[in-house]
Amino acid sequence: MAEISENSKVKYNFVGKSGLKVSNICLGTLTFGESPVGRPGQSDEIFSHQILDRFAAYGGNFIDTADIYARGTSENILGTWLERQPRENFVVATKCRFRMGLEGNKNAIGLSRRHITSAIENSLKRLRTDYVDIYQTHLFDDATPLEETLRTLDDLVRCGKIRYPGVSNVTGWQLEKIVQTQTRLELNPIVSLQQQYNLVCRESELEPFQVCKNEGIGVLPWSPLKGGLLTGKVRRDMKPTEGRVGWVAQDEKRQAQSAPAYSNLPSKVFDIIETAEAIGKKHGRSIAQVALRWLLQKDVTTSIIIGATSLAQLDQNMAVNEWSLSAEEMNQLDEVSTPDVPYPYEMVFKLNKDRVNTTVYDYFVKSLDS
């Protein structure tokens, strides 16, 4: 195994306006344990621990999991590794919301007080720890009053089972409602938003990330390579056959359940891939490394959640700390990946172009100002 250079080691950022500091690369553990749907590239316990060891050698201190990953196996694998480490050296995040019990248990799902309190106890047992650093709601729950969910998270902070609450996969209005409700009830605030964010999926810049900027919430992008789409394995007019991307592309049912559907991608996606490839060649870097580097240099990003199915892939991903994109290259990637801006955003941004506060200046305003 190659020696890790100092230039490759992680940098550290505060999570939002909290005092919690994490590595700018977060190791995601979705690949730990056997996949219930037969997804290729999963890691057994021994190899998962090797990935964790290598990540820690880079200085990585931030690890993300969820109870639903491999139906608890991911947390178990992480737990058997954590119990051999200095616990205080690592920031562990996990999530709850999805069904984790038998179908006969109607309360084993959602964000009710009952399910959250049950879920955290089970996660702590699997993780072999007394506390979780960031406990995240995995998805908004329309069936549970928001006050119930947020008071429960606050109680978990107060009793020491979690250090900070966070959320994942929410709309702009949902995030703002969460913030306003916590403020009104004087509860411990959320510190992070875990959201899909990459060169192909930038819609959260319209509203959720504006809330994050205004409220001091850190953004933790998941699927930074859009499920393998931004690795170069998918090419214009070619059906992918390799790895997870090929596994999804070869089955219509998987495509219907997965994002993206590789059989009918718009031309713009390939424009993004080809632009990233051209920029990467100037630096001797891959398409994936360009996509990750672009995310690292976005002002809302606290830490990028990456996965790895091999140690070589992990090394490639971690190498994004060795170099930077120029302002011109960032603009190129911004322009080629700018999504269509629908009403009312287009009108609001355009007519406010001369009323911009530089602390919340948005790339959409830049694009509409041309």
List the helices and strands and how they pair.
Layout (H helix, E strand, L loop, with lengths): L11 E3 L6 E3 L1 E4 L16 H13 L4 E3 L8 H10 L8 E6 L16 H15 L4 E6 L8 H13 L3 E7 L3 H14 L6 E5 L11 H8 L2 E5 L20 H7 L2 H6 L9 H17 L3 H10 L7 E3 L4 H8 L8 H11 L7 H7 L11 H6 L2
Parallel strand pairs: 3-4, 3-10, 4-5, 5-6, 6-7, 7-8, 8-9
Antiparallel strand pairs: 1-2
Assigned CATH class:
Alpha Beta
Mean pLDDT: 91
Which oligomeric state applies? single chain
Percent of sequence in beta strands: 5-15%
Report the end-to-end length measured between terminal Cα atoms: 49 Å
Number of domains: 1
Cα-atom radius of gyration: 20 Å
Number of contiguous helices: 14
Task: Throw out a few tags for this protein.
single chain; 370 residues; alpha/beta; TIM Barrel; 8-stranded parallel sheet; two-stranded antiparallel sheet; 14 helices; globular; oxidoreductase; 4-deoxy-l-erythro-5-hexoseulose uronic acid reductase
Brief account:
GO terms for molecular function: oxidoreductase activity. The chain is an alpha/beta fold.
